[in-house]
Automatic annotation (TrEMBL):
Protein name, as recorded: DUF7344 domain-containing protein
Pfam families to which the protein is assigned, alphabetical: DUF7344
InterPro entries in the cross-refs: DUF7344
Domain DUF7344 per the UniProt entry, residue ranges: 27-103
Top-rank taxon: Archaea
Amino acid sequence: MGDEQFEPDLYALREAADEFPFDDVVRLLGDRHTRAVLVYLHDHPAPTLEELADVVTAKVASETGAIAAPSDREQIQLRLYHAILPRLAELGFIAFDTETKAVSETDIPDAVSDALGVTDTEA
């Protein structure tokens, strides 16, 4: 599974690039940590920073086949807090409270979810 590459839905990727600056879309979907966060937020719209750090750390460990060390989780948590979550908030995808360290709202555009292959199963 560690050799598996991300292959977005190209039609959905084009729609996402029409809604947002191309560089933003590439940056979002080109980063495995950000992809893991966006996929998780699809079904869990109000997680804490700690919860997201656990999820992303576990995802990376499962992809690489390695056992995650506490320092790996700490690095991911710092990156989430200082880079990934503020960027998603800046784009309007989430509301992130730096005091409580929690996501309070999620509004990920359908085109981005579609490009990630995350779809609602309810009709």
